[in-house]
């Protein structure tokens, strides 16, 4: 995705929630900290709800598909939060949940979802369309035809390059996929599998795994009682070297995740008062940690020891729990947590996305990642007996990849119609 272009197949791993009806915009505005001014049909946005205490539930992509018709795409915690409030708040809305494939018996979905990303992405799109793509601003939608069927397209760029996200009815999966693959042959299109897909987040700087901050607080008691015991929140796992008896130590604020700029106090929303109180506080910073290659290699080399083995480092994703939390230290003192880790082939580095105290957030700061769980590891099926290892790291910019950082600049392709 840095050199030619890729096809990300997002048809399977994310859930979707359709929210429709006269009060659809009202309930979403009530839950999201983002502004809804000028959120017209054929636009999308990153949707971030918070608890009354100002902690993040999660984030998803919100599509405004038609008048009174919205679609939320992403992980379950946000969809559960929206469902609860829509059902219990007296809103005139209709909801329809389309679960991810792992929770289905038939393997079918309501929609397919493909992303074409990379320097050659727009050449592939043009070939598939049989005409130059229409001008489209970032996070805007259009309708076109590919493979003889109608498709909806979102202007998106997960890899820091211009691209499109395409979606439509599940029965059109095959003709659209085949047309994209055929169109991409000339331009070096590669199909990206589920394992390699996760490393994209490391390069672009998106933390996909904030723990939903719903486990404490009297104001959320009714919500916890509404949630199923065997649902996402009830079965979520925490792993890593950061351990606390207080679950709130695992919560994140919007500023922790780099979402401070999304907060808009131009409407009433759940969590607004708490965020207003914290707005002028010193906040933790989201950073990339570039782990020292030699330390990573030495940790991996312990796999060839009979004893004293480190926690196995899988590639490209080294995540072994639903919500990873590893200690980040300076001189033995915890200064933050690492919460997503893996290998980037493009950068030839093990990278982690971390949240650290402001005093240690400057690029170039040397820190230590404590890898592995205490007391030889927990009883999770993904954890084998091991010893903890210290791995040196260097605080680096987020996004880590220069081309992605440039994509977020005010004069980048994201701010233009291309």
Keywords:
6-stranded mixed sheet; 418 residues; alpha+beta; 10 helices; 6-stranded antiparallel β-barrel
Write up what this structure looks like.
Strand 15 (326-330) and strand 16 form a beta hairpin. This protein has ten helices and 19 strands. The strands form four sheets. Strands 8-9-10-7-1-11 form a six-stranded mixed sheet. A six-stranded antiparallel barrel has the order 13-17-16-15-18-19. By secondary structure, the protein is α+β, with helices and mostly antiparallel strands. Helix 3 (121-129) packs across helix 4. The protein has helices at residues 24-31, 76-88, 121-129, 173-184, 194-204, 221-226, 232-235, 272-278, 293-301, 402-407; strands at residues 5-9, 15-20, 43-47, 60-66, 69-74, 94-98, 111-117, 141-146, 149-156, 163-169, 189-192, 238-239, 285-291, 323-324, 326-330, 333-344, 349-356, 366-371, 389-396. It is globular. Mean pLDDT is 92; it is low at 408-418.
Question: What secondary-structure arrangement, pairings included, does this model have?
Answer:
Blueprint: E1 5-9, E2 15-20, H1 24-31, E3 43-47, E4 60-66, E5 69-74, H2 76-88, E6 94-98, E7 111-117, H3 121-129, E8 141-146, E9 149-156, E10 163-169, H4 173-184, E11 189-192, H5 194-204, H6 221-226, H7 232-235, E12 238-239, H8 272-278, E13 285-291, H9 293-301, E14 323-324, E15 326-330, E16 333-344, E17 349-356, E18 366-371, E19 389-396, H10 402-407
Parallel strand pairs: 1-11, 12-14
Antiparallel strand pairs: 1-7, 2-5, 2-6, 3-4, 4-5, 7-10, 8-9, 9-10, 13-17, 13-19, 15-16, 15-18, 16-17, 18-19
């Amino acid at each position: 995705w840095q050199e030619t272009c890729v096809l990300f197949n997002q048809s399977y791993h994310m859930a979707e929630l359709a929210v429709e009806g006269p009060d659809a915009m009202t309930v979403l505005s009530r839950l999201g900290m983002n502004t809804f001014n000028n959120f017209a049909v054929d636009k999308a946005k990153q949707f971030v709800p918070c608890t009354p205490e100002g902690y993040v539930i999660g984030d998803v992509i919100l599509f405004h598909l038609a008048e009174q018709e919205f679609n939320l795409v992403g992980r379950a915690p946000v969809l559960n939060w929206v469902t609860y409030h829509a059902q219990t708040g007296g809103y005139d809305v209709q909801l329809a949940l389309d679960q991810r494939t792992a929770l289905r018996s038939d393997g079918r979905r309501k929609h397919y979802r493909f992303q074409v990303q990379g320097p050659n992405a727009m050449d592939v799109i043009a070939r598939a369309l049989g005409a130059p793509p229409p001008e489209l601003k970032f996070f805007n939608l259009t309708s076109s035809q590919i493979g003889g069927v109608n498709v909806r397209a979102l202007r998106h760029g997960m890899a820091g390059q211009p691209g499109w996200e395409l979606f439509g009815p599940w029965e059109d999966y095959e003709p659209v996929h085949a047309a994209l693959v055929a169109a991409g042959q000339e331009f070096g299109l590669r199909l990206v599998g589920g394992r390699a897909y996760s490393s994209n987040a490391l390069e672009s700087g998106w933390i996909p795994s904030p723990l939903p901050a719903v486990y404490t607080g009297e104001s959320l008691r009714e919500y916890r009682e509404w949630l199923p015991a065997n649902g996402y929140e009830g079965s979520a796992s925490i792993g890593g070297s950061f351990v606390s008896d207080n679950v709130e130590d695992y919560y994140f604020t919007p500023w922790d995740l780099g979402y401070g700029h999304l907060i808009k106090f131009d409407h009433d929303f759940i969590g607004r008062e708490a965020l207003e109180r914290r707005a002028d506080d010193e906040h933790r910073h989201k950073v990339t940690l570039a782990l020292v290659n030699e330390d990573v290699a030495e940790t991996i080399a312990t796999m060839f020891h009979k004893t004293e083995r480190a926690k196995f480092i899988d590639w490209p994703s080294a995540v072994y729990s639903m919500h990873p939390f590893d200690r980040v230290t300076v001189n033995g003192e915890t200064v933050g947590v690492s919460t997503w880790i893996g290998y980037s082939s493009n950068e030839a580095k093990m990278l982690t996305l971390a949240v650290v105290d402001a005093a240690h957030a400057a690029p170039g700061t040397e820190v230590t990642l404590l890898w592995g769980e205490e007391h030889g590891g927990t009883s999770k099926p993904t954890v084998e007996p091991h010893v903890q290892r210290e791995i040196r790291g260097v605080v680096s910019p987020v996004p880590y990849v220069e081309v992605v950082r440039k994509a977020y600049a005010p004069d980048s392709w994201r701010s233009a119609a291309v």
